[in-house]
Specification:
Blueprint (H helix, E strand, L loop, with lengths): L2 E5 L2 E4 L4 E8 L8 E6 L6 E7 L4 E4 L7 E6 L4 E6 L8 E7 L4 E2 L3 E6 L1
Parallel strand pairs: 2-11
Antiparallel strand pairs: 1-3, 3-8, 4-5, 4-9, 5-6, 7-8, 9-10, 9-11
Length: about 110
């Protein structure tokens, strides 16, 4: 059974940085197209970045281009979302997902105050 677990969320001030983690059990990230998504209160879920590690292809959403970056640790079967220059509009629950197969983590809350 594939499971995704996110961690690393928190409460920060505008301009701060934060790194989220997503660990995968029951599979390997190299097998999938993976995505980070987020959902703010009262808003629809939004794609942050979709990527393929073996192909080294990363598609960042316009709101986060140049501020967010994906990295990985294959030994830990974990991917990271480095978030820099955070803004209040980045406030959301962040999810790690393999959307094609319907695998979703439980989410981690990121709150950015102005």
């Amino acid at each position: 059974e594939v499971q995704l677990v996110e961690s690393g969320g928190g409460l920060l001030q505008s301009g701060a940085s934060l790194r989220l983690s997503c660990s995968l059990s029951g599979g390997t990230f190299d097998d999938y197209m993976v995505g980070w998504f987020r959902q703010a209160p009262g808003k629809e879920r939004e794609g942050v970045v979709c990527f393929s590690l073996p192909d080294r292809v990363f598609y960042y959403g316009d709101p986060v281009k140049g501020r967010f970056a994906v990295s990985s640790d294959h030994a830990k079967n974990t991917v990271y979302l480095q978030m820099n220059s955070l803004k209040p509009e980045d406030t959301a629950v962040y999810y790690c997902s393999v959307p094609r197969f319907g695998y979703w983590g439980q989410g981690t809350q990121v709150t950015v105050s102005s």
